[in-house]
């Protein structure tokens, strides 16, 4: 990719014809070409993850498809923002008894603040305070380096089952994803969306490779394809693949579908650590 970039002033078009071309390199190459106004065409089966924004190129001896740059603005995203505002306000009102109960349980069973404002990268990698009910004992972050060897998530993400830092009430809240309900306030503030790639902790963000950061082209979400496809049971590469699929295939109807699937996924509590 770096060798191609050196010749962007001389290149009008890039063709990806190798079906075995590495996925991470293809993502970087396509994005870099579009940033420089260079057209990208691919042979069939080259990149399943990018095939939703292709246009067939007629009159070629080899069947080719041209990749169009993704669009993340316009009337659809205005509709998404209106839906986020209405949906988060409605859910805060309806779920207020549950929110108050969870807050009381956190306050009465362990020392520390009820709400934990975790610093996480948002759209464009800009950090924001992601609100969660506190599920760990005070000082838990200072103990994380001692638990690194037990990391079960792989890749850039840190997650372990039966984390000793989690309180009994915190374990219950995590099982049903109730600890994330305060993020409805983040949605109201325009820092998050109801649906989108999940915001990773700053520690995990700093360990991402460059091609992973495409997931920060849009607002992070309270739920997404990751949450309805296995949650913490997925490995990191699968998580990134699902995020990219969401970015490439985004629509209002996809958001509605994910929201509806989130309810049974949370009810089953499968993959929640």
Could you characterize what this model shows?
The protein has 273 residues and is of the alpha/beta class. The protein folds into 2 domains: 2-67, no CATH class; 75-268, no CATH class. The protein has 10 helices and 8 strands. It has helices at 2-5, 23-35, 75-94, 96-109, 144-147, 168-175, 183-188, 202-205, 236-249, 252-268; strands spanning 13-16, 39-42, 54-57, 64-67, 115-121, 127-133, 193-195, 221-223. It has a 4-stranded mixed β-sheet, covered by helices on one side. Strands 5-6 form a two-stranded antiparallel ribbon. The relative contact order is 0.12. The mean pLDDT is 81.
Q: Main attributes?
A:
4-stranded mixed β-sheet, 13% strand, single chain, globular, 273 residues, 2 domains, two-stranded antiparallel ribbon, alpha/beta
Quaternary organization: single chain
Overall form: globular
Number of helices: 10
Mean pLDDT: 81
Largest sheet: 4 strands, mixed
Structural class: alpha/beta
Helix content: 25-40%
How many domain units? 2
CA radius of gyration: 21 Å
Major sheet: order of its strands?
A: 1-2-4-3
Amount of beta strand: 5-15%
The helix/strand order is HEHEEEHHEEHHHEHEHH
Cα end-to-end separation: 38 Å
Report low-confidence residues grouped into runs of 5 or more: none
Q: Count all strands and give the number.
A: 8
Layout of secondary structure:
Layout (H helix, E strand, L loop, with lengths): L1 H4 L7 E4 L6 H13 L3 E4 L11 E4 L6 E4 L7 H20 L1 H14 L5 E7 L5 E7 L10 H4 L20 H8 L7 H6 L4 E3 L6 H4 L15 E3 L12 H14 L2 H17 L5
Parallel strand pairs: 1-2, 7-8
Antiparallel strand pairs: 2-4, 3-4, 5-6
């Amino acid at each position: 990719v770096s060798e191609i970039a050196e010749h962007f002033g001389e290149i009008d078009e890039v063709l990806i014809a190798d079906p075995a071309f590495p996925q991470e390199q293809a993502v970087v190459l396509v994005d870099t070409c579009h940033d420089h106004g260079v057209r990208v065409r691919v042979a069939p089966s080259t990149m399943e993850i990018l095939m939703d924004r292709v246009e067939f190129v007629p009159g070629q001896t080899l069947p080719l498809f041209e990749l169009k740059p993704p669009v993340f603005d316009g009337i659809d995203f205005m509709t998404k923002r209106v839906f986020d505002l209405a949906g988060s306000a409605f859910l805060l009102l309806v779920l207020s008894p549950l929110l108050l109960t969870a807050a009381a349980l956190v306050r009465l069973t362990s020392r520390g603040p009820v709400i934990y404002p975790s610093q996480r990268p948002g759209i464009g990698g800009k950090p924001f305070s992601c609100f969660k009910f506190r599920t760990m004992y005070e000082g838990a972050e200072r103990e994380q380096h001692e638990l690194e060897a037990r990391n079960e998530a792989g890749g850039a993400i840190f997650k372990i089952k039966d984390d000793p830092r989690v309180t009994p009430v915190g374990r219950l809240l995590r099982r049903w994803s109730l600890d994330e309900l305060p993020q409805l306030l983040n949605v109201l503030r325009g820092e998050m969306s109801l649906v989108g790639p999940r915001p990773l902790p700053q520690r995990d963000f700093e360990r991402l490779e460059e091609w992973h950061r495409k997931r920060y082209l849009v607002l992070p979400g309270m739920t997404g394809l990751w949450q309805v496809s296995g949650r913490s049971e997925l490995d990191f590469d699968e998580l990134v693949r699902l995020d990219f699929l969401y970015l490439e295939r985004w629509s209002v109807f996809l958001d509605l579908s994910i929201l509806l699937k989130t309810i049974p996924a949370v009810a089953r509590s499968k993959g929640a650590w």
